[in-house]
Amino acid sequence: RILEVGAGTGSSTAAMLDGLSQSSDGEKMTSRIETYTFTDVSSGFFEKAQEKFKAHKNILEYRTLNVEKDVSGQGFDLQSYDFIVAGNVIHATADIKKSLTNLQRLLKPGGKLILHEGIRQDYLWSGISFGQLPGWWLGVEPIRQWNPWITPAQWDVILKEAGFSGVDLNLPDRQDPNLHTQSLLIGTAVEPSSAQPQTVIVTTTQSGDSELITALKSHLELTLKIPNVSAVHYLDLANTDLSKSVCISVMELERPVLSDLALTEYNNIQHLLVTCAGIIWITGDILTNPSFNMITGLTRTVRWERDIDEVNLVTLSVCEPRPDVNDLVSSIGRLYSQQFISTLTADKINGEYMLRSASFFSAHV
Ligand SMILES: C[S@@+](CC[C@H](N)C(=O)[O-])C[C@H]1O[C@@H](n2cnc3c(N)ncnc32)[C@H](O)[C@@H]1O
Predict the structure, then answer these.
(1) Residue 252 to residue 261: CA distance in whole angstroms
(2) How does pLDDT run across 226-244, given as a tens digit for each residue?
(3) How many Å apart are CA 202 and CA 145, to the nearest integer?
(4) Which domains does the chain have, with CATH numbers?
(5) How far is the CA of 132 from the centre of ligand 1 (A)?
(6) How close is the Cα of 133 to the center of ligand 1, in Å?
(7) Which residues approach ligand 1 with their CB closer than 6 A?
(8) pLDDT tens-digit profile of 121-135?
(9) What number of other Cβ atoms are within 10 A of residue 104's Cβ?
(10) Is 293 exposed, middle or buried (CB count within 10 Å of its CB: 0-12, 13-18, 19+)?
């Protein structure tokens, strides 16, 4: 199962299909590819590609995919591809680490990413031509301020940060280093380890088996493929190591806990906010009951106190009339995915959201 991103006019596709798809076995043509998913941010390339690759139509499918956006939200199954081909596309995105993280999530553990990229910033001809186009200047990373390409050593670092083994193989276009301008870089998606952050749903339900918790847990595990999801009662928080946990607090969906705190409640909630690796704190409707809005002030203070941790403390008020459990769970999943699975720049963390009529509202401009 192969996915190609930014397939465009299909030059990488042609090479892949020639190499892998059909091999002569006497009279019979055989293919080593089960499906080849040809994607691009724009569907404008598909008609020509369908014509160009019509001999392979039994294995090819055409879908739009923006590698900068959440991939599960675009209808792609996580951990479902053996290979991803990205020919001269990732450098054309704003945040390389975020794009690579999105691709990593689509690969099966052990799956390979085949990147074809320019690797020289000192070859100025490309900037003279492509620099006329705004897309050349999208990169947000300081190392890409003047040229979107980076070296194989820099790819190695970012690949590792995005959940890959790094650059396993670097195949240069020329052996002479003076003439080497492009590389094929191969990396492997690393199996999620048990050291991965845990996801903890904080609840006031002692057994942790309310309809919402059960649905949320199964959405996180089955749809978002998040391992290690557990439910913890809010009065057990102080006994739980939360330092690697992203928490989803649903306790204030039931009642405004913060506005009437007993000492034990305070101690547990303090431990949660001061030690967790990240949180989505969900409350009832702050428009009809201002007591639910105390978390907004509290998290603003905790963010100052924890600024060195770069912790992401997110709040979400669910307005009346409340969505049904399935809609609520999928909205929470979307927010979780955007905040804790995608890689966010510093200005995108610590959001304060309101869910109203199936739309997210934010206080950020
Ligand atoms: C330089 S072309 C490379 C095309 C093709 N891979 C090749 O090697 O011939 C870059 C391609 O990436 C696509 N692209 C740009 N930004 C993208 C994004 N965010 N997600 C997916 N594709 C994107 C463009 O539409 C374009 O087709």
Answers:
(1) 12
(2) 877 888 899 989 888 888 8
(3) 42
(4) 2-188 (3.40.50.150), 198-362 (3.40.50.720)
(5) 17
(6) 14
(7) 5-9, 11-12, 40-42, 65-68, 87-89, 92-93
(8) 998 888 899 999 999
(9) 24
(10) buried
